[in-house]
Amino acid sequence: MNKGLSSMNKGVSPLIATVLLIAFTIAVGGIISVWLTSFTTTTTQTVGKQSEAQIICGTGGIQLSNVGFCSPILSGYITNTGSISLGNLTFTVLYNDNTREMFYANYNVNNSGFVSNQSSCCGSLTMLPGEKYWFNFTIRASNYKILRVVTNCTTITDEVDNSKNEITKIC
Within this chain, do residues 162 and 78 fall inside the same structural domain, yes or no? Predict the structure, then answer.
């Protein structure tokens, strides 16, 4: 009877248990190593691309000037003051009631400058270094507060603030 009980109480031998534990540890370590290598590669590439874009965008500049308002037209000049081409120009008019209206700079096939409107009829405007263009928008209300422009380099922006008298009445 003791022989039957002792055979039921037997488990995995210490040698086999040690081998299984080592194999399991190596397998988990291999999986983590593959994941960590992939994660590190992806992160390094992403940071590299973002750094390159920041370096390139560091040489850009944009400026709004001679901004005026004659109801309902907001107009002025925009100049690329940097040494790189800028595109995807988006103008945002912020109103006193915290609403906003957006306009996109598009090529105007009817004249040599550009007109910004809410459609993308003619393709996005790309401004070369030193280029200056006239813009005008028909805005929905005269209680505008700020006109802001943003480019494809999100750090390159400019704005004029009506509350600081940076927009003149030209009527």
Answer: yes
